[in-house]
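Tokens as discussed.
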């Protein structure tokens, strides 16, 4: 019965904000188009459709707000105006009562909050769709007082989540079966993707582990601060971390007044992102202004402070290799190779005409080459490529969608800080090094090094294995083996030739990389 009432409320909100206009009008059945016109009577639908969708999601509560945030990353499926509006769904959820937060903490640690913390501020300092944050003080093992931030999961999130996800899945099936665009928009796949993200975010220990990994990766860069997690105080519903003091990056006038070099801050943001992506393959995928501050402390003045690590992106070596080859082909304007890479990766169905896909990619990319580099938006190029891919039924990989979404965030933030920011010039050293690492001798040596432990374990066992083989085999088999060993000696000279050829190949690869660097950059 509760699910029924919740379903009725969702339908009422959808009609109140005119969301039926977004889906019913695309249905082919005449009676559904009549319903669309009837339910539109007497409503004020002057606001843009994206704004009405965002306001409806806010009205429906935290789960739907989070769904809107995730949906905003699927620019390959959404019109630009709706995706842009949904991107504003950031931390627009009222806080829950502090008494409930305290009860959650006491349940997690099985003791009163006064025994967990020396001091706990009951007034939350931030509230988001999944959790809210309080400031507190703890005493460490050495007896030193330490200021911390306590992130507490919203109460009852898992129960509400399961109910709302079931309703979303049901509505997704309706849309897919009734709408002409339903199968192309893949509503059930979008809900499944949202389900995965939401379950990951509901485990705060997972977020703490993401933060710890990013902190290790970024230690030597000295451009960004990531809070240390206090593992003795971490639980799936509560995590405690180092308290970070800084100014929100959106407060530019305050930063300028403090003497922060704003253009350098913009360049540093690009450097941080490309380092995480191209060096580590592990990047913070929720880098909107609400999750970024700037330190004004003397020891770390002007450094970024990253917060909220519920969503991170990862790239495998295969992903990197695919992207590297695409970048090389893109810089050379070899659109046929870009199309072939899509086919080789299995992203487009077999039988797709390479010449048609090549022409579509050329249409997207070619106009950008006649502009100064600082006027080229790499994020917009990727977004247009994703939109073009609809025609060819390209299967967009989730990790690359996160990459594109984060790149758009970084570009928007960087150009807000410095309108003259040349994103490509800033990214060039990373792209250059990345491509050399992917297709050059360094990768060959890295692969040999990775396999070395396996061969080192095998080689000492070879004499014993050979002896056991000879002892256990009949005479004729031993004779055959001796003949093979004699043949092996005759091939030693050939092996030397192979080694010499391999060395020549490596030298050739080095020369090739020099040529690639000259041609591409």
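Sequence:
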């Amino acid at each position: 019965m509760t699910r029924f009432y919740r379903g009725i409320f969702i339908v009422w909100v959808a009609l109140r904000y005119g969301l039926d206009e977004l889906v019913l009008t695309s249905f082919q059945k005449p009676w559904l188009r009549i319903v669309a016109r009837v339910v539109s009577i007497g409503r004020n639908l002057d606001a843009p459709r994206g704004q009405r969708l965002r306001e409806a999601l806010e009205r429906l509560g935290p789960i739907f707000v989070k769904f809107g945030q995730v949906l905003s990353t699927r620019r390959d499926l959404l019109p630009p105006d709706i995706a842009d509006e949904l991107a504003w769904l950031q931390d627009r959820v009222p806080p829950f009562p502090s008494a409930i937060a305290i009860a959650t903490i006491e349940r997690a640690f099985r003791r009163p909050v006064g025994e967990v913390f020396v001091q706990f501020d009951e007034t939350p300092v931030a509230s988001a769709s999944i959790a809210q944050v309080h400031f507190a003080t703890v005493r460490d093992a050495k007896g030193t007082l330490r200021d911390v931030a306590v992130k507490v999961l919203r109460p009852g999130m898992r129960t509400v989540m399961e109910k709302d996800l079931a309703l979303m899945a049901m509505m997704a099936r309706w849309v897919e079966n009734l709408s002409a665009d339903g199968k192309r928009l893949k509503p059930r796949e979008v809900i499944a993707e949202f389900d995965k993200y939401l379950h990951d975010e509901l485990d705060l220990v997972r977020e703490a582990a993401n933060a710890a990994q990013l902190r290790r990766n970024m230690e030597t860069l000295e451009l960004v601060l990531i809070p240390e997690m206090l593992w003795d105080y971490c639980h799936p519903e509560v995590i405690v971390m180092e308290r970070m003091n800084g100014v929100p990056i959106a407060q530019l006038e305050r930063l300028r007044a403090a003497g922060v070099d704003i253009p350098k801050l913009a360049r540093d943001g690009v450097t941080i992102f490309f380092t995480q992506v191209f060096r580590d393959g592990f990047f913070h995928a929720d880098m909107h202004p609400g999750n970024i501050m700037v330190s004004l402390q003397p020891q770390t003045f002007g450094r970024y402070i990253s917060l909220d690590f519920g969503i991170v992106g990862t790239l495998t070596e295969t992903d990197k290799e695919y992207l590297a080859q695409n970048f090389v082909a893109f810089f050379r304007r070899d659109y046929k190779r870009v199309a072939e890479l899509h086919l080789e990766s299995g992203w487009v169905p077999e039988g797709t005409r390479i010449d048609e896909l090549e022409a579509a990619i050329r249409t997207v990319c070619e106009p950008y080459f006649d502009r100064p580099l600082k006027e080229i938006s790499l994020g917009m190029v990727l977004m247009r490529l994703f939109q073009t891919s609809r025609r060819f039924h390209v299967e967009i990989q989730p990790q690359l969608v996160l990459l594109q979404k984060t790149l758009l965030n970084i570009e928007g933030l960087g150009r807000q800080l410095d309108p003259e920011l040349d994103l490509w010039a800033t990214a060039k050293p990373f792209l250059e090094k990345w491509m050399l690492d992917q297709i050059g001798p360094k990768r060959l040596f890295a692969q040999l090094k990775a396999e070395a432990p396996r061969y080192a374990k095998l080689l000492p066992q070879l004499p014993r294995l050979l002896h056991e083989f000879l002892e256990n085999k009949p005479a004729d088999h031993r004779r055959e083996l001796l003949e093979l060993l004699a043949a092996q000696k005759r091939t030693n000279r050939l092996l030397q030739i192979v080694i010499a050829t391999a060395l020549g190949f490596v030298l050739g690869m080095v020369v090739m990389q020099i040529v690639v660097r000259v041609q591409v950059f």
